[in-house]
Structure formats: structure tokens, C-alpha cells
Design goal:
8-stranded mixed beta sheet, alpha/beta, 835 residues, 13-stranded mixed beta sheet
């Protein structure tokens, strides 16, 4: 179409325009450099029928006219304003911008805000920037392209800049998509504006466009009541998280979603279209929220025992122990809390804690809670790469950790100003960027008044999931939600002042001081729960006369397997345990029974829940033994105060939107309770999709409620096998296969196209095997017979794997997605090694 530019000259513009008559909303989408309106094609296709999408090819870019005019930032903003006046003369508008289209789209947003505020309905930004944060260099790729003698060569004379932008996409786009991005830029004349765009990026205050960019950045304060959405590719080498944080500070009300693994061309790499469509429709009104009775603060038991000599936390290292009393713990927590305030930590600041389980970790955690900082807990079992991704997502202001954590933080560029938990020499402190030691922080706060108490609605923690079903997600909790979880656990298991806890899962031990009981983590590799031995567990139990033991199924299995060598003293210690808890994955009744044989006075329970909500349900060993007739594993009745519904599966194995409470319906488990998480951190789209209906949490687990109200879990939604006869869940197959003599563990996976999948059983046997293989006829027949008894479709094949891949946190959750890929290759005749 023909429309004026900023000078009033008629120019030929190329647009990708839905052209909907009388839309309720128009999205004006602006590309950056060196893309064009093709970038927004998915959004055009996904938008509702009553939403118009206008994606602009900026002048001299894409298929718009090559005017030969050098256009600065303020010119391009004025060009866009003039175009929109012609194309979208009325009605509400949401501006959408990517890369250097971001500041240009914001210029349009500010124009609308100032001239027709009722028309600006929202702002969406994707991997862009409006300001170079102080103390940080401009993006290296931009600086390199601006090197004298290089600019013309890489941007106009050749297609290097276009090809480089496509090379940054993750995953690499198909050939036809790459060809489409190159289509408008086939020769140097067509690429001249690419050069001009790069040259127009202000890298210093004297640049001709610096004032215009500064004006856009300063103007964002005018948009603080305008809905905003920030969509970010986490692996962008141009606009890193540094620029996301800057925009979050300028638009603190904005919804944020970081697409882990996506890069610079985030609309190409991730579901940006789905996020924008979900966001513009807006969340429906929130349903009834659970009552929030006034609860005691998380450190209330420390206050109540401020003079007590009873051990609060005990550390076990081989045969030696170290402990701290409740009274001393209370004093140290108060001092460190006040010291953090003196050091400059403010309420709401995020503090990543990277200290092994024990006294120092407990002190720092409760000090952060007491002064209002937000604890960020990243499980070291995630491994360095995923830990780095988690920390980049959480963006802590401070990092408190041991020497090894400081080394990793330096090598891997983890965010956060650093405080060492321990002692370092001056030279090493300087090399690792350490500002203070925990001892110095404690001394700084010693004798100072307690900081103000945070409100119950204040943020308390960001805890990362195990990552067993995808990238680890940050789960955000407020104080009242953590308090509710503490109170629920105390009520469920009758935890009182005479109890003491051994937790083979470190985060669980952190509840000990909040519950007013002594706690200890046994001598083990906490990143590998299956390393826990019976002797190490007995030593920990004896150290505190433990009445409670918590262990994942993998940890408990190794305890049982190594129990033959323990002495009479260890048996006496185990005899004092009244409650054995095992969770983290389905627990076989025989394993719980073996645990009870070892801890003869214990009652065995397995709670069901997840990082986002624990506990949801609970079942005792005898109930588990006597359960029958459900789909999968029975996890007990939902707790009082926990509402559970089932979102039925459709014929394609997808969960429907509306959950029901009817018995025997198989679908996604949906829960609501006072101790459910607040939200997923910086994952707006994930949070939106997981809270439908609003106020409920979609767990991602598939299950059913039986007529007696018991909840059965059949697996994960993403692991549902969709056969020609309809969807089936994997756990029932696995439970049946594990009854076969010689089978240690089993997994059911789907092989083939969705809707025509066949079930393949992959088993790990008691007898070791070095390579994967097809099971022999006797084992295959035995597995099929066991599955026939539970009335499930017969597996097309039974494969034997050396070991089933499991999660790093509990060593218990089977990675069925990885196994399915392995099984599919095996079934296709490929060479099979370890999955």
C-alpha cells in the first residue's frame, strides 16, 4: 500500500495484514534487523478471528520500497506513527516489537499514550533493548559488526549479517524458512538498510540516535499502568538477560516468559504466537481462593526456643557429628538477618544459597526469610549446565555459597554479588569476586535490632523442579504458602516437639526448624540419593534418636539392599523410628514393607505431591497393599483442604479444559489448596496454561479418582501412549511388569506415530546386561502374562536395558521420553546400547 513516511513523502509499504473488518483489537508488529514481516507469520495464523494483525515491513527493509534515505531511530518511529494513522486509524492497539523493532514499537506506544491513551491496549516486547546498562559493554556481535572496514562487508556487500542472524536460531530453521528470510535481501542494494540499521545503534552518548533511544527508555515510566508482556529467548547472544532485567525494572508490572533454550529469533524458536494470543485474551476471573488463616511465621519455633539447648540441626560426617542448639540457631539467624540488611540486601531481593545441607545452610535460609529476602534454591543434582540456566532465570541479587560454588559462579558467569560461606585468602577472594564472608555478615549484624518482619503475602522462595520432564522450572512461593505447607505436614503426620527427623532428601530437612524438631541429613552424596546405605542411615538415626525418616524410593532401596551388614546397635536405632516416609516416584509396597522390616516400629506412608504442591494425598502401607481396581498406583485420598479434580483425556490423549470430580474418569490431575505454589517464575505462558481453570494447578500427572475417593496416578500427561484404540497410561503396565521375577524396574513407552502407537515395555533386570537387547521369549511371555492380568493392551515388544534413565534429584523418576526414543531406534533395527 501507499502511505506517507515521516517527511510526508508517499512511499510503498509492504504489510502482512489480516485485514479483519471491525476487529476488537489490532496487533501492530514490528520486526528488527535483518528480518521482515515474515517473522510474525505464526502470530497472524494463530490470532483469533476478531483480532487483526498488521505486521510491517519497515521502509527500505523486507519488500517495502527502497527509498535510499538513511533513517534514524526517531525517523523510523515517525514513519510507523504515520503508517498506523493510515492503516489503523481507530480502535485499540497492542504494539509488538522484536530486536530493534522493540524501541520503534515503543515509540508508537508512547505516541498513542500521549495522544490517544484509550487506544493503547498493551505492549509486547521480545529480545530487544532500550538502554545499555551501566558497566556492561554493548553486544559483542554488534560491536564487531561496527568495526571500521567491517560494517559494509558483513551487512551490505555480502549476506553475512542475514546468514549470521539465522545461524543464531535454535534449532536451525529448515531450508525453506531460511530462504524466506533471505528473499528480500538478495543483493547489496536491497541490503543497504541492514547496514544503516546497524550503524544507527547508539554505542556512545554522542551518536545521532542516542537521544531518541534515551527518550524511549525514559518514557517507559508512562506505561506503568499499560499491560505489558516480555517474551525472551534465554540463549540470545545479542540481547542477553541483562536487557530483560533492565526492561523488568522499567516495566515492573510486566508479565514475563523466558523460553529456555530459545535464542535471538525467539518468534522462530519458541511459541511466541501462542503466548501473545493467550495474553491478549487475558486470564478469566480468578475463582475462589483458599482461606488464608493467620499462621505463625516460618521462624516462630526458633523464637519459642530461643533459650533451648536442644539440638536443632545435626551434621553427620562418618563417625563424627556437629550440632547447633535451637537457642544458638536463633541467635545466629537474627545476627545474619540483620547483617544482610547492613550489607545492603533489601526485602524482596533474591539470594541464591549454594551450601551443602547442614548448619550453615539452615542459618542462611532462615535469616533470609526473617529479613524478607527471597531464597533461591537450585538443586546441585541438576548439574552445572542446568544449574546455570536456573540461576540465569532466577537472576539472584546475591549468591551465598561455599568455595566450590564461587569457583563455578566465576567460571560459568552465574549472576549475583558473592558472599562466601567459609574463609578465603584476600587474593582468592578478589579472584572469585567475593565481597564478604558469612562470618563477616554475622559480625556486622551482631547486636543490631531485628529487621522488620515480612508480610505473610511477601515472596519467600523460588525452588526449582527436578527437570525430569523438561527444563527445570522455578516455582515461586509466598510466606503464607510455605507456612501452610509446614502446617499441613505437621498435621498429616502428627509431628510434635518430641519428634526428630532424618531426611535423605535435603530440602525436606530444612523444614525441621520450622516444625520445632531436630533434623539431620545422613552422610551421603545428596545429589545421588541411591548412595545412601543402611549403615549411614542408622548412624544418622542414632545421632538424634530419630522418630521420622524420609527417603526417596531409590535411597530406601539401597538402604534395604545394604542392611545385611548392620550391627545390633544400628538395629536398636532403627527400632525407635515411628514413621517412614518415601516419595518422589511411585513406591512399590514390597519396598515399603522391607523398610518396615528394618524399622520394626515404624508406620510406612508415601505422600503424593510435587514441587508445586506437597502434600496432595497420602497412603499408608496396608492401604497400598489392599488397593485394587484403579489405573496405575494408588496414592491415597486427597488431604482435607485439598481439592482434586480430573481433566478428562480426549481421544488424542490431551487433557480437556474443564475438570470433573466423577469417579473412574482418567485425565490430568488438577488440584487446589492453600499450600499450592504462587506461580512459575518468569514463565508466564507455563503458568497461564497450568492454571486452567483459574485458581487450580494442573499437575501434569494423569490419574483417576475411584468410587471410594482414592486417587490413582497413571503417569505423566506427556507420557500417555495414544494407540489406535485410544490413550493408555504407562504406570499400570509398569506395576504389572515389576511383579515378574527378575525384573527390577520397568517402563512403558509408545513407539510409532501418535494415534497409532504400540506399547513397548523396557525392563531393567536383576542380572546385569551391558547392552540393550530384545528380551528372550520366557521373559517376554512372563511380562505379557502379568500385563494381561491387569487387562491392558499387550506390548508389541519387551526390551531389556542395562539401566533405566532416572532423574538426578530422587534417582527414581524414569525418563520415559528418552526411553521412547531409544526403544523406537531399537524397534527400527538400529544398534542399541545404553538408553
Amino acid at each position: 500500500m501507499t502511505a506517507p513516511d515521516h517527511r510526508g513523502d508517499a512511499c510503498t509499504w509492504h504489510l502482512l495484514d489480516r485485514g479483519d473488518p471491525a476487529p476488537r483489537l489490532t496487533l501492530v508488529c514490528v520486526h528488527g534487523n535483518p528480518s521482515w514481516s515474515y517473522l510474525w507469520r505464526d502470530l497472524v495464523a494463530a490470532a483469533p478471528d476478531d483480532v487483526r494483525v498488521v505486521a510491517v515491513d519497515q521502509l527500505d527493509m523486507g519488500f517495502s520500497e527502497r527509498t535510499g534515505v538513511v533513517r534514524r531511530l526517531d525517523d523510523r518511529i515517525a514513519d510507523l506513527v504515520a503508517l498506523v494513522a493510515e492503516v489503523v486509524p481507530d480502535g485499540p492497539v497492542v504494539t509488538v516489537g522484536h530486536d530493534w523493532g522493540g524501541p520503534i514499537s515503543l515509540g508508537l506506544a508512547l505516541h498513542l499514550r500521549r495522544t490517544a491513551p484509550e487506544r493503547l491496549a498493551g505492549v509486547v516486547l521480545a529480545n530487544t533493548a532500550v538502554h545499555q546498562p551501566a558497566g556492561s559493554p554493548a553486544p559483542a556481535l554488534i560491536r564487531a559488526a561496527r568495526t571500521p572496514g567491517v560494517l559494509e562487508r558483513v551487512t551490505a556487500s555480502t549476506s553475512v549479517f542475514v546468514d549470521g542472524a539465522l545461524a543464531m536460531s535454535r534449532p536451525r530453521p529448515p531450508a525453506d524458512v531460511r530462504a524466506a528470510y533471505r528473499a528480500p535481501y538478495g543483493d547489496p542494494t536491497q541490503r543497504r538498510a541492514i547496514r544503516d540499521f546497524v550503524e544507527d545503534i547508539p554505542l556512545d552518548p554522542g551518536h545521532p540516535s542516542a537521544a531518541a533511544l534515551d527518550a524511549v527508555a525514559a518514557g517507559l515510566v508512562e506505561l506503568v499502568d499499560v499491560p505489558a508482556l516480555l517474551l525472551w529467548g534465554s540463549d540470545d547472544r545479542v540481547f542477553s538477560d541483562l536487557y530483560l532485567r533492565d526492561l523488568e525494572e522499567r516495566l515492573p508490572h510486566a508479565d514475563v516468559h523466558r523460553f529456555v533454550g530459545a535464542a535471538h529469533l525467539v518468534p522462530e524458536d519458541a511459541d511466541v504466537a501462542g503466548a501473545v494470543v493467550a495474553w491478549i485474551d487475558g486470564p478469566p476471573p480468578i475463582g475462589r481462593t483458599p482461606d488464608r488463616p493467620g499462621r505463625a511465621p516460618l521462624w516462630a519455633e526458633l523464637d519459642a526456643r530461643s533459650g533451648s539447648e536442644r539440638p536443632a540441626v545435626v551434621e553427620v560426617d562418618g563417625d563424627s557429628t556437629r550440632s547447633i542448639s535451637f537457642g544458638d540457631l536463633d541467635g545466629r539467624v537474627r545476627a545474619v538477618a540483620a547483617g544482610l540488611v547492613e550489607h545492603g540486601v533489601a526485602p524482596g531481593d533474591r539470594v541464591a544459597i549454594m551450601i551443602p545441607p547442614g548448619i550453615e545452610l539452615t542459618v542462611v535460609l532462615y535469616a533470609c526469610w526473617r529479613m524478607g529476602a527471597v531464597m533461591v534454591l537450585v538443586d546441585s543434582g541438576l548439574g552445572p549446565r542446568n544449574m546455570g540456566r536456573a540461576l540465569a532465570s532466577a537472576a539472584p541479587d546475591r549468591l551465598i555459597g561455599i568455595d566450590r560454588a564461587m569457583v563455578a559462579a566465576t567460571a560459568l558467569r552465574w549472576p549475583g554479588r558473592r558472599i562466601i560461606a567459609g574463609e578465603l585468602g584476600r587474593r582468592r577472594r578478589r579472584a572469585l569476586g567475593v565481597e564478604a564472608s558469612l562470618a563477616e555478615i554475622e559480625a556486622l549484624g551482631d547486636g543490631r535490632p531485628d529487621p522488620p518482619t515480612p508480610d505473610d503475602d511477601a515472596p519467600a522462595a523460588v525452588v526449582f523442579t527436578s527437570g525430569s520432564t523438561g527444563p527445570s522450572k522455578g516455582v515461586a512461593y509466598r510466606h503464607h504458602q510455605v507456612q501452610a505447607q509446614r502446617d499441613e505436614l505437621a498435621e498429616l503426620y502428627g509431628i510434635g516437639p518430641d519428634d526428630s527427623l532424618v531426611a535423605a532428601f535435603a530440602p525436606f530437612a530444612l523444614y525441621g526448624p520450622a516444625l520445632g524438631i531436630t533434623s539431620v541429613v545422613p552422610d551421603m552424596d545428596v545429589t545421588r540419593p541411591a548412595t545412601l546405605t543402611a549403615d549411614a542411615l542408622a548412624t544418622a538415626v542414632a545421632a538424634i534418636d530419630a522418630s521420622l525418616v524420609f527417603a526417596s524410593p531409590a535411597a530406601l532401596a539401597n538402604v534395604v539392599a545394604t542392611a545385611g551388614g548392620i550391627d545390633a546397635e544400628a538395629h536398636r536405632a532403627f527400632g525407635g523410628v515411628r514413621l517412614l516416609l518415601s516419595a518422589g516416584a511411585p513406591v512399590h509396597p514390597d519396598l515399603l514393607a522391607a523398610g518396615v522390616d528394618l524399622m520394626s516400629a515404624a508406620e510406612a506412608h508415601t505422600p503424593y505431591g510435587m514441587t508445586e504442591a506437597l502434600p496432595v494425598a497420602d497412603i499408608e502401607l496396608d492401604e497400598l497393599r489392599n488397593s485394587s481396581g484403579g489405573d496405575g498406583v494408588c496414592v491415597g485420598r486427597p488431604r482435607a483442604g485439598v481439592e482434586v479434580r480430573i481433566a478428562p483425556l480426549d481421544e488424542d490423549g490431551r487433557a480437556t479444559t474443564v475438570p470433573v470430580g466423577d469417579p473412574d474418569v482418567v485425565g490430568e490431575v488438577v488440584v487446589r489448596a492453600a499450600h499450592v505454589k504462587d506461580r512459575y517464575d518468569r514463565l508466564w505462558l507455563t503458568e497461564h496454561r497450568s492454571t486452567q481453570p483459574p485458581g487450580w494447578h494442573r499437575t501434569g500427572d494423569v490419574g483417576m479418582l475411584d468410587p471410594d475417593g482414592y486417587l490413582w496416578i497413571g503417569g505423566r500427561l506427556g507420557h500417555v501412549i495414544v494407540t489406535p484404540e485410544g490413550p493408555v497410561t504407562p504406570v499400570a503396565f509398569e506395576v504389572a511388569a515389576e511383579t515378574v521375577a527378575g525384573v527390577r524396574r520397568a517402563a512403558a513407552v509408545g513407539v510409532g506415530p501418535r494415534g497409532r502407537q504400540v506399547v513397548v515395555m523396557v525392563v531393567e533386570t536383576e542380572s546385569a546386561t551391558r547392552r540393550g537387547r530384545v528380551a528372550d521369549l520366557a521373559l517376554t511371555d512372563a511380562v505379557r502374562a502379568a500385563i494381561r492380568r491387569v487387562e491392558r493392551p499387550q506390548p508389541a515388544a519387551v526390551l531389556v536395558a542395562p539401566a533405566l534413565p532416572v532423574d538426578r534429584r530422587h534417582n527414581s523418576k524414569i525418563d520415559r521420553t528418552r526411553l521412547a526414543t531409544w526403544a523406537e531406534a531399537a524397534m527400527a533395527g538400529g544398534r542399541v546400547g545404553r538408553p
